[in-house]
Automatic annotation (TrEMBL):
It holds the Pfam family SIS. The keyword DNA-binding applies. PANTHER family: GLUCOKINASE, MURR_RPIR FAMILY TRANSCRIPTIONAL REGULATOR. GO terms for biological process: carbohydrate derivative metabolic process. Residues 126-257 form the SIS domain. Coiled coil: none annotated. It comes from the Bacteria. This is MurR/RpiR family transcriptional regulator. Residues 1-76 form the HTH rpiR-type domain.
Length: 289
């Protein structure tokens, strides 16, 4: 649970703790610049009371408290708007206007969460692996295929030898005649026997694997050469893959854009050639040049 949620809920807070929470919610930016003594003097309480409060809510002390406020600054609002529930974001019989606002908040919230925790180092390493590869085989299952297919199509457009088999039953590690093949596995929960089997098969053939997942506590994460963690708190009881879809598309978009930017001018020309080819093939029946 985020700090802003804890402060809003004020569960089992005494009066002093409620005063601390209210002060932070009203003016989070000022707290970041206050020492513990200065903060305490604003509320006419002792510094030790603030330190005890930070430890009560699971932090290590006042410095940790200020760091959490700084990292969540965008979540603090004056209208007491709470964070959107990821599994069941919409309540019974809400209006279209309310639903539209809720979904906008959900996707904005998701993007900010992912951005703040983005594994820039491993995305860079993964991007470099793609750049030096001559064969890319992508595996995904269920709703993760949406992000996999989007990445696959974008890689094809800039000339990469990318392969994705979306049909269940055909996702096998096929013989590969390439000097520098790599594998990419996208799996939100990371609990699929098939994905683990694919990873082990890739490893058996000495094929480096990029593993994109929201589950770091499984054998696949430990076995992959490069792991990209995507924070996502959806469960199997979700209404739909709203937050996870946004999260995985964002992370794979960042990965793709890094790859694209390394050979920018060449890739812009490839996109131009692709667009010209699409137009000249007259894809739409009944439309003449």
């Amino acid at each position: 649970m985020k700090l802003v949620e804890i402060l809003h809920h004020r569960e089992n807070f005494n009066q002093v703790e409620e005063d601390i929470a209210k002060f932070v919610l009203d003016d989070p930016k000022s707290v970041i610049n206050l020492s513990v003594r200065e903060f305490a003097s604003q509320l006419f309480i002792s510094p030790s009371a603030i330190v005890r409060f930070t430890k009560k809510i699971g932090l290590t002390g006042y410095s940790d408290f200020k760091m959490k406020i700084a990292s969540e600054l965008a979540y603090f609002s004056k209208d007491d708007t709470t964070l959107v529930a990821l599994d069941l974001p919409v309540a019974s019989k809400q209006t279209v206007k309310d639903i539209a606002k809720t979904m906008m908040n959900l996707h904005s919230q998701t993007l900010l969460d992912i951005y703040l925790d983005l594994d820039l180092k491993n995305i860079t390493i993964a991007g470099d692996l793609i750049l030096h590869s001559d064969w890319i085989t992508i595996f995904a299952k269920g709703e993760s295929i949406l992000a996999a297919e989007a990445l696959h199509q974008k890689l094809l457009r800039i000339g990469f030898n990318s392969h994705l088999e979306a049909l269940n039953g055909f996702q096998l590690v096929k013989p590969i005649r390439a000097k520098q093949p790599i594998g990419i596995i996208i799996s939100q929960f990371g609990d699929s026997r098939e994905m683990l089997a694919d990873l082990r098969e890739l490893s058996k053939h000495n094929i480096l694997t990029i593993y994109i997942t929201s589950n770091q506590s499984n054998k696949a994460w430990q076995a992959a050469e490069i792991g990209i963690y995507v924070e996502n708190n959806e469960t199997l009881n979700k209404m739909g893959s709203f937050a996870s879809r946004t999260a995985y598309l964002y992370v794979t978009d960042v990965l793709y854009e890094y790859v694209f930017s390394r050979n920018y001018d060449e890739n812009v020309k490839l996109l131009s050639d692709y667009a010209f080819q699409s137009r000249t093939r007259n894809r739409f029946l009944g439309v003449d040049d």
